[in-house]
Amino acid sequence: MAYYFDEPSRTFNEYLLVPGLTPATCVPAAVSLKTPLVKYRKGQEECPLTLNIPMVSAIMTAVSDDHMAVALATEGGLSFIYGNQSIEDEAAMVARVKDYKAGFVTSDANLSPDMTLADVVALKEELGHSTMPVTDDGSAHGKLLGIVTGRDYRLSRMSMDEKVVDFMTPRDKMIVAPADTTLKVANDIIWDNKLNSLPIVDDDDHLVAVVFRKDYDSHKSNPNEMLDDHKRYMVGAGINSRDYAERVPALVEAGADVVCIDSSEGFSDWQKMTIDWVREHYGDAVKIGAGNVVDADGFRFLAEAGADFVKVGIGGGSICITRETKGIGRGQATAVIEVAKARDEYFKETGVYVPICSDGGIVYDHHISLALAMGSDFVMLGRYFARFDESPSNKVMVNGTYMKEYWGEGSARARNWQRYDLGGKKKSLTFEEGVDSYVPYAGPLKDNIDVTLLKLKSTMCNCGALTIPEFQEKAKLTLVSSTSIVEGGAHDVLLKDKTPYVSNTIH
Ligand code: XMP
């Protein structure tokens, strides 16, 4: 006979936190958001990979590329680069994150010597940059021959046909710095010589990057940065249970710090086979997350299979229609609560703490607090990050409002069949499990995440917690009735600012 869970499965919106005593020492500035990313023997050893903030970005084409990874690692979180691309392209994205040096920009406005003043003007209009290196082949890494800035030409006095080579500042009159220059030294050179930019060149005089004076303030180091032992940004990468034998080595070679099997449903032999393969070839040196599951059985299966962390959530994502198409899933709050309990039981039995990640369905900032209070060690977000400048999707104007495109990995647009693969021979997506959509554009990641984290810390203080484990221990959660949800919003007043989307936006 079929098994019935006793209680209806519930969503984050059905819970609130009840405050506990806030000691005078418990202020947001004193709160630590550090949290384990991978399994360890709690109480006996340090977690080998710890997040500085409990947020990771979703393994999605519209969310996590190398730009997002750098922006999020700067703030203390981690991106999982999307796996729905060729192995070479994904590995290249990982490598770009590992090679990234804050403040060192790969120039996108480059000239070759035989280009004309008209080309310079057009490029400036297109990209908005007035500093343009001149290289032998006009590429960002060609041999450096000179530079053109606004000081090198006067439109009123020159012909538009004039060649770049005739008015650029030539290489022998330029100040440059070698490839191993640190940001601090580069900035000193810029200040000492009153420069606006400093080209960085390798031993063969090929352009490597440019450091700009204006970027100085924004590249002071962030205390939360997620850095590896070599001071490089940390990054994760999505894999699937089809081509792992080729994909994992390429990602490891590129420098991925952790991989995660990206699947809509993770309680499967294919996930175990993938983990087995990683263990056989890399032992514990390669960290691998698995999922997604929504109950204790699924968690235990993946924990016993050797997963380093387990993702929780099916069908709760903003772009997901798995529950509608297949009738599979569970309310996210109930799934997290049950899996957290299973994680704690597994820890008691084995001494191994396997972190869990609540994936999908975070609509408001306070949902992050709820997910953590319910036992998640960290959360994965798609919609939240898709709204920012750093996400790879297009920013478009819809009915007078800026939006970013955001689509599910199971949508016809993504066609990520490996994510929904059930071991058959067919390599295509037969039916959709996600939609293509817009989300309101929200500006730079940093501005938004600062507010989100301050809210989280403030909530934790209300519950008397200075750390996430303490929060999980002390949190008191209460179910809310539908009328108390109405009571919790602004009500019985006429709102002055009634902008559409306000109530749907994370804020
Ligand atoms: P949010 O709510 O943060 O959810 O936008 C992101 C998570 O949703 C999952 N995901 C999908 N689930 N169909 C699904 O059923 C899809 O097309 C799809 N694409 C992504 C995924 O777990 C992600 O992290």
UniProtKB/TrEMBL annotation:
Record-listed E.C. numbers: 1.1.1.205
Residue ranges occupied by any CBS domain in the UniProt entry: 104-167, 168-226
Top class in the EC scheme: oxidoreductase
Gene3D superfamilies: Aldolase class I (3.20.20.70)
Cofactor: K(+)
InterPro entries hit by this protein: Aldolase_TIM, CBS_dom, CBS_dom_sf, IMP_DH, IMP_DH/GMP_Rdtase_CS, IMP_DH_GMPRt
UniProt KW keywords: CBS domain, GMP biosynthesis, Metal-binding, NAD, Oxidoreductase, Potassium, Purine biosynthesis
UniProt-listed NCBIfam families: PRK07107.1 (NF005493)
Protein name: IMP dehydrogenase
Organism (species): Gordonibacter faecis
